[in-house]
């Protein structure tokens, strides 16, 4: 159980879970007015690079967590653009 | 320039920058009413674990980015509790 990868999985679960309420609020209300476009684009670029970095270091927790977060962010951005 | 660590530094800069507007808004207005306590606590736990994970893998970009983000989150949480 003292494999450091578990730290990564736990970290990934927490920081991804922290995103869910915001994402669900956008899906439910179909609007993302209180989300800044700049924030969404910056986060997508950053999370994508973390995904590439995780891949380059062979870190499965980073790949998994950042893939899920990237999907959530992409959907939030889509709502932001679609339902201005 | 094709050292993967640069991916990590770029990712860290972007995801940390994405945090700044929210943090500055809290510092300027001295209130964090639109920030959920659960979100702040979940993020702090997650970012702390990413910091530990980065340390366990000897990843300087992860250590640096998550340290800065952890400080910003800690200050946001302090404002959240202090100025309810």
TrEMBL record, chains A, B:
The keyword Transmembrane helix applies. This is SemiSWEET transporter. The chain crosses the membrane at residues 6-24, 36-56, 62-79. Its main location: membrane. It comes from the Bacteria. It is a multi-pass membrane protein. Keywords: Membrane, Transmembrane, Transmembrane helix.
């Amino acid at each position: 159980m003292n494999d450091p990868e578990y730290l990564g999985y736990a970290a990934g679960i927490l920081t991804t879970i922290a995103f869910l309420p915001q994402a669900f609020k956008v899906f439910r209300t179909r609007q993302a007015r209180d989300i800044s476009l700049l924030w969404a684009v910056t986060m997508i670029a950053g999370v994508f690079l973390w995904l590439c970095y995780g891949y380059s270091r062979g870190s499965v927790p980073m790949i998994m967590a950042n893939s899920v977060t990237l999907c959530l962010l992409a959907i939030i951005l889509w709502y932001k653009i679609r339902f201005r």
